[in-house]
Amino acid sequence: MSTLRILTASEQVAAHLRSELLQGRWAGTMPGNDRLVTELGVGRETIKAALEQLENEGLLVGQGQRRRRRIKLPGELSKIRELRVRILLYESASRGTSYNTELLGKLQEAGYTANYGRKTLADLGMNVERVAKFASETPADAWIVEAGSRDVLEWFSSQPIPAFAMFGVKAGLPIAGISPFKGPLAVRRLIALGHRRIVMLVRGERLKPKPALYEQAFLDEIQNHGIIAGAYNLPDWGNSPEEFYRCLDSLFQLSPPTALLVSEPKLFIAARDYLSQRGIIAPRDISMACDDPDESFTWCKPAIAHFRWDTAPVSRRILRWAEHVDHGKEDRRQSYVKAEFYEGGTIGPVPRGK
Q: Per CATH, the architecture of 185-308 is what?
């Protein structure tokens, strides 16, 4: 079972520089440290460690003190295919996830001219017009879109350039894709523990124009157990930190939930911090679980309940799709990776009196 690993700053810089090298941005010798520090906005030690990593990989060759490193692309890597693959990330922080780093590396190892887009969906406000303008101005033969909204993926699916939906709201669209299949395991467990006021917090784009498959399954499972489901259980809070905290304020004013399902690790941590400042602790006062994994969760006490899945099938599926695109074969198949629910120690029975 693979787990997500957050890369260090130097590893992220090395991944970026590796991508630029493989695209032929620089020839002969690598730019000096001062230029890279200015261009990337990171510290000198971070640049130094990243360049040393690329030396160890054999992409750069040191030529002595105060001399620029020589670029040396191995023969199998220098034969770049013509297919230009661009990964449109959800947000800048996505660069540090292990599955994106692994995917980019495998695409480049396969010989494709692959790189992250210069902007992310968050930079573009998940706005279809801005995404369309950015995509049309970016040289690409194929797009991989991470966690796209329904409107964004609908636009990509209508374009002549092939696109792949890595997660996102894609059901029913003519676009290839893959997602973890979570099912209603978490909500079933919470209901078995006696919870009736269960709230799921997800990004707003997963609710428009209607709840995505996972979110709808959550509502259906609640209703199947005789609980009237509505906006209270699945609030459309928006997408900004301010809107997130306003939603929490509203939830905990009159009828506080006894259980929270939160879609992302950083949103989970923000919600847990919000509650702890008010003396509300899981699982003593509330049950909490996260829809996505994070390697830090098992280090917490108690360990955080969450879904987890093997990320390797994601990159394997996308590589097969890229191969099909490269050979002119149409591929719009959507598939799923089975996820398991790790109960951890942040969920429990409904506290007495609630």
A: 3-Layer(aba) Sandwich (3.40)
